Amino acid sequence: VFNTVYNSDDNVFVGAPTGSGKTICAEFAILRMLLQNSEGRCVYITPMEALAEQVFMDWYEKFQERLNKKVVLLTGETSTDLKLLGKGNIIISTPEKWDILSRRWKQRKNVQNVNLFIVDEVHLIGGENGPVLEVICSRMRYISSQIERPIRIVALSSSLSNAKDVAHWLGCSATATFNFHPNVRPVPLELHIQGFNISHTQTRLLSMAKPVYHAVMKHSPKKPVLVFVPSRKQTRLTAINILTTCASDVQRHRFLHCAEKDLVPYLEKLSDPTLKETLVNGVGYLHEGLTAMERRVVEQLFSSGAVQVMVASRSLCWGMNISAHLVIIMDTQYYNGKIHAYVDYPIYDVLQMVGHANRPLQDDEGRCVIMCQGSKKDFFKKFLYEPLPVESHLDHCMHDHFNAEIVTKTIENKQDAVDYLTWTFLYRRMTQNPNYYNLQGVSHRHLSDHLSELVEQTLSDLEQSKCISIEDEMDVAPLNLGMIAAYYYINYTTIELFSMSLNAKTKVRGLLEIISNAAEYENIPIRHHEDNLLRQLSQKVPHKLTNPKFNDPHVKTNLLLQAHLSRMQLSAELQSDTEEILSKAIRLIQACVDVLSSNGWLSPALAAMELAQMVTQAMWSKDSYLKQLPHFTSEHIKRCTDKGVESVFDIMEMEDEERTALLQLPEAQIADVARFCNRYPNIELSYEVGDRDSIRSGGPVVVLVQLEREEEVTGPVIAPLFPQVRRD
């Protein structure tokens, strides 16, 4: 593997279990690129945001601090990302963020100038967001063929049963395809699968409580243990159950490996009293509701060996940079609020969890215990001991990708669309597994007919949504709605919804409702019993909803957007959901602005622009402008308004002594206020009416408007309550 990765420029596929050191292969490929071209550009793709942040921190230290090469993490904000792409040697991204940038590759030289394209976790092509991963890999191969310059692809994956198909699709030769069996690990794995013949999930979890403790005592009485559970609530319950059983063994502190007084400075940083109590006894827990600081503290205590047992919720398996001697997976089902039922963990998640039983420098072997429903035992025996098959799902969601390629003129007719599909993994797999893709046969004719039907149906749906036009039943061209959808990276059904719902009378309330109903928010999670929380929230928000269904993700989105604008205190989980909602909200609002202005509807277009500002600053337009200022409470605002100080400019015009006396803030906070004021836009508007003498009643009038911003200061918008960096 080393010889192919470091001493050649061939495309490479490496399939091996989680924890085998595949990231090192990526690092050798980067070193090879930098050796040949010190200013070379590498793009590293990983499907999970948490993994991207983890790799960024690791590589920032290795490549930027030590080798002085610029390492950047894409943000999802196009203008910012274009600048980062221009100055980065190593660009780290999720598939979606790279899709946004690379769609317009013909106009973006920096996309064409990529030398090395590394794709991690390629097996996730079979997962929920797999189609985007498939499209960007296919696009990079296509770009390479068009610019007639090789872009090296290094693909890293779990062990696959159809690795040859994946490797062939990515242009890897047989000699550059390395697919290791799942048993081949740096640290051999001893795997135990325990079945529980109880169908009711909560009862099954209760019956697993003592076996978890016994598994710890049997397989890892002194070494680190990581327990994965289905939910946030279960992390706390399991930690308490372990300690209760421990206490009944009259060894309450057996999992604590440091003096209690040494824990004190760490515990002071935590706000959860239960977590403090469990940590004092050597058991920690991690879930989505903890702050970044709390997570760091708990991870640090576990990694250092002070705390022996860690319980973590299943969704964190991708974002944790910790490993253990023993991993226990306590049940393999979680509650899916979207369909209101318990569903199985994706097999990829289970593989990731198992991969945490990996400490090459400390252990000769790792251990894993999987506790599951009795009927699932055979399934796990098969898929944890054998390589995984992986299939494409692109045929279920091609619309947005076709629309984007039509806008960039890569697809100009139906034949182009068929040709486009020949670059995909879908095309490779159709003849290999025809039943899975509903093919009638495997001949060239059958394949051609199936592709044509797929193309016809997809293009017909796009035409009905008014995203494209089809002329002479063959040629395709983008329409305004399609261009807006592609530019803002939004779903074709969303842009159709905007087109049908927005009108000349739409106000902020209507905009919030329309945006909340976007397809982008279909997967906002609804948790067990969360409907009661949302019902309470619906009583507090200013815009009441008519007959809301509190298990609907779109209703939840609306309520959380209003809660954000009202600066309401939310639980950590709801706050996390709000951040996910906000990450998409601005581009959805901007798409609304474009749809409204295309129709010539000025008032609602201005309302949408104002909503974007409201979302950024977390306030309603009726609120005092002073609410935007850092450290300003309602008390500060009242003091200011009582003195006739009502705008940012009023604050700026005050004498220093007068301002200090009025605000009564510490010096450091006054400095934050000053920084905000200096960044606040001071815009001068001037206008001129064109051809005054020929103006007639009822006729058109041309007005030339000039906006000039004084003292342009570059830098991000100061918006502490918005989760992403925003630029003016």
TrEMBL record:
Keywords linked to the UniProt accession: ATP-binding, Helicase, Hydrolase, Nucleotide-binding
Q: Which Gene3D superfamilies match?
A: 5' to 3' exonuclease, C-terminal subdomain, C2 domain, P-loop containing nucleotide triphosphate hydrolases, Sec63 N-terminal domain-like domain, Winged helix-like DNA-binding domain superfamily/Winged helix DNA-binding domain
Would you name any one GO CC term? nucleus
- Database matches in InterPro entries: C2_domain_sf, DEAD/DEAH_box_helicase_dom, Hel308_SKI2-like, Helicase_ATP-bd, Helicase_C-like, P-loop_NTPase, Sec63-dom, WH-like_DNA-bd_sf
* Keyword presence, Nucleotide-binding: yes
Please state every residue range assigned to the domain named Helicase ATP-binding: 3-178
Identify a single GO molecular function assigned to this protein: hydrolase activity
PROSITE patterns for this protein: HELICASE_ATP_BIND_1
Protein name stated in the entry? U520 helicase
User: Which species is this UniProt entry from?
Assistant: Chloropsis hardwickii
